[in-house]
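The following block was generated as part of the benchmark described in Methods. Ligand: magnesium ion.
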Amino acid sequence: MSKITAAKVIVTCPGRNFVTLKIETADGVTGIGDATLNGRELSVASYLNDHVIPCLIGRDAHQIEDIWQYLYKGAYWRRGPVTMSAIAAVDMALWDIKGKVAGLPVYQLLGGASRTGVMVYGHANGETIEETLDVAQHYKEQGYKAIRLQSGVPGLKATYGVSKDKMFYEPADSDLPKETIWSTHKYMRTVPELFAQARERLGWDVHLLHDVHHRLTPIEAGRLGKDLEPYRPFWIEDATPAENQARFRLIRQHTTTPLAVGEVFNSIWDCKQLIEEQLIDYIRATVVHAGGITHLRRIASFADLYGVRTGCHGATDLSPACMAAALHFDLSVPNFGVQEYMRHTPETDAVFPHAYTFSDGELHPGEAPGLGVDIDEELAAKYPYKPAYLPVARLEDGTMHDW
Ligand code: CS2
Ligand code: MG
């Protein structure tokens, strides 16, 4: 028995906000979990402080499944991004503790390694196609086997995924949501040209991905998928908003371009129909937003029945604690696809010392017991919370759209 004696929530902002749960047991072993929900960080911090931590004290840290079920069923108001991010943080911290007590990296507790490393994809973006491909060439030279391409759209001031800093992308960049303008008509002409030039310049040995970021209707997504088929994308992501999972049937009728969705999902129920009707090819749900390692394993096992592979979200707003947990999951899960890898800033890496390493286009979680990540509380205290929101999108006539 490893009795939980204390737990605390650490909010820090080394360039962007992160929320971390730290759990301590009677034998002095601690574990951490990421609880960051971009733009709603303080909601999860409160959910943990006010409604979870009081229920954890005195429980056995080794009872990961029972605690998961207690927090999920005991909430009465099940699911949702705040609840499931809080449960995820507890889950990650308990797997961290279990690994440390066992003296094993968490992937060994999940069934051991199923591969030598975790293929990741980098993020090439630019105002123009040429600038985007210059950055993509740089990622290719760094050894990346998979690269996401996002370029500016002529006639639009700003576009999802295009940032000033080419090695770091953070969309939550203002203390109230920025209003951006979107035009599907202008966008639809740009992406096929981007991919045509990308194959010309980068060749066929590198996987190319693109994030549509919820912007299209199903038939527009079908059109885009069909237009991109000659360039064989690894996937197009979030082609259309997925609350109504049946929307993807229409896309599937028109294109064989692989579809990825799920970074905004927080439970298996958000993707059950998408998976069982084989409407997608990759599920993007993450450790931090979909209930932790415990629940993500359930989603992956269900996906495996239908030939759907994992492609976990890994943006800068998921902390190194989540990245570490994701890599232990990725190394072991049988139906692995790819792991997103947006590098964090040096300040963030200093606050979250970690064992994972990058080489030859792959990440590896390392052999440290537990998750192999920690939080430097003293350094974290130097970066107080700073309100930051994701943008919103409107069409050129002012209609609210999906960002
Ligand atoms: C994006 C993210 O990484 C991705 O695929 O969709 O940048 C997303 O916009 C942010 O994580 C939202 O917080
Ligand atoms: Mg995305």
